[in-house]
Amino acid sequence: FRGVSQSNTNPTLHGGLDYAHDSGVFAGLFAAAIDYPYTPFKADTGQVELDLFVGFSRPAGRDFEWDVSLIHYQFFESGSSNDDYQELALNLHYRDIARFGIAASNDAAAGGSSGWIAELELRQPLGARYQASGTLGRYALSHERWRSYLYWDVGVSAVFEPVTLDLRYYDTSHEAVTFAGERLTEARVVASLSPET
């Protein structure tokens, strides 16, 4: 999640369900098993994360599309009295090639202070089955102990219906250690397998 391992660097299971209407309204949920250990920066967030979102999207000309969404992050069995928080996000898509997104929260990562995110994602097909992609983002935090940081990833996906394989390199700028510690923010390569239904 923005360059931070929320599974304590271990393998994890996750899944989601999305719905989109012809009017542009969309909604969905995402659930993941997490193992975010206690650190001096944040309480133990429990073992399950549930994200709920609702939004609206519309085309803007032939090549562009925009969407706006509200995202609710919820953590069960958290060691904190309230780790839940919300973000408002806006994305601009150029075909299936590029996405620029911004998001803001008045309680970023349930830390009691505001924050915002800016991301640029690029994708390039490599034949019929493969795609190269990468993301560069900045997490700007106003928390007194958390410093703003950069995060990025680059990788290749391969589609072998009904599954997609992805191999990806993740890293952050050094300032991320103030947010989650050195172990959870260090560079790593992650492989994932996603069945499509």
Index terms:
197 residues, mainly beta, 2 helices
Question: Could you explain the architecture of this structure?
Answer:
It is a single chain. With 197 residues, this protein is mainly β. It has helices at residues 177-180, 182-185, and strands at 14-20, 25-33, 48-60, 64-76, 85-94, 98-105, 115-126, 130-141, 149-160, 163-172, 188-195.
The total count of helices amounts to 2
Structural class: mainly beta
Side-by-side strand order of the widest sheet: 1-2-3-4-5-6-7-8-9-10-11
Shape type: globular
Helix content range of the residues, please?
under 10%
Biggest pleated-sheet summary: 11 strands, antiparallel
Low-pLDDT segments: none
From the N-terminal CA to the C-terminal CA, the straight-line distance is: 24 Å
Listing every helix as H and every strand as E from the N terminus to the C terminus, the arrangement reads: EEEEEEEEEEHHE
Q: Beta-sheet strand percentage? A: over 45%
Radius of gyration: 17 Å
Q: Concise description?
A:
By secondary structure, this protein is mainly beta. It has two helices and eleven strands; from the N terminus they run ββββββββββααβ.
Summarize the helices and strands and which ones pair or pack.
Elements: E1 14-20, E2 25-33, E3 48-60, E4 64-76, E5 85-94, E6 98-105, E7 115-126, E8 130-141, E9 149-160, E10 163-172, H1 177-180, H2 182-185, E11 188-195
Antiparallel strand pairs: 1-2, 2-3, 3-4, 4-5, 5-6, 6-7, 7-8, 8-9, 9-10, 10-11
